[in-house]
Design brief:
With 372 residues, the protein is of the alpha/beta class. It is built from 15 helices and eight strands. The strands form two sheets. It has a six-stranded parallel sheet. The chain is globular.
Length: 372
Amino acid sequence: MKQFKLTPKISQFNRCSDFCQTMNIGSKDLLIVSEHTYNDYLSELNLEAHVVFLRNYGQGEPSDLMVEAICNDLAEVTYDRVIAIGGGTILDVAKLFVLDEIQPVCDLFMQKLPIKKVKELILVPTTCGTGSEVTNISILELTQLSTKKGLAVDALYADHAILITEFLYGLPYKYFATSSIDAFIHSIESYLSPKATPISELFSEKAMGLILEGYKQIAEKGEQARMDWLDEFLLASTYAGIAFGNAGCAAVHALSYPLGATFHVPHGESNYAILGGVFAEYERLNPHGKFKDLCNFIAVILECHPEDAMVELDMLLAKILPKKALKHYGVKEMHLSDFTESVMVNQGRLMANNYVALDSESVRRIYDSLYD
């Protein structure tokens, strides 16, 4: 039996101030946000919430060390709601603070602790890529394991997912590019997942369509063309989040985690570095069935023959963000064996969603193809 689930109530606001007023943010709220976002949008509102600036606890991708440090600082703070405003890092971290027990964080992610939601959760994305606002997944770098790992439990669903396009206006182009490509990868992986349903496929297809149409405009007219598509990109990110929240992400994410954790490559960029290799392997192993359907779908949008769809897609994405070989991130050939082992040992949750089964030889072949 296949199922489809959407838990958060989704709301849209024109401005951040409208959201804060409507939600009546006050002294019983824990607000997790970046200092930059707070200063630009929230400081003048004189909110009484207890504020946590995530970057006071470390830079880069979210980690167990960040969460442990925040937990220690919040030991004497009481709150009823967790409100997170930010990118995927902030949203993924904030989800954990609705739980009754969080520490030790590694034990939580290995599900050695009881998982019980005791706070209300409101998530507001400030990029067009995370999809985390509508999923039940939190992903952290677990420093003890030297990899990223996801915790996927219903207790991590938001009660409210809030979409505010205003936040995207000041998003630098590179962050727009990496986050939106991440959303595209969410949509394309969920579409091919064996857990996909006809309903989840609708969200995957809508997200892919909106993103690729926007990318065509950017490729033709330049970076500023994105400004006319920000509403569509924000919706596409949420659509893709709904899709992968039901059908899952797969090998692209699984293979990107060792790269991101070891060399601190941002999540969207590390996924993009892996995308072409995984899909080339899928096409080599089984170019028929659902993969053929995907090529037909993309070919219509890109106005090309289905057999050229993956090449045309790669060319379009390269116009949005140039792709780098793994060695340009500092990866050495000796790392590829460690990466492969890490994927096979730690990423079973994601690898179960692959379009076709990938063994260790396939994973190593993908890494080799992306190395230089």
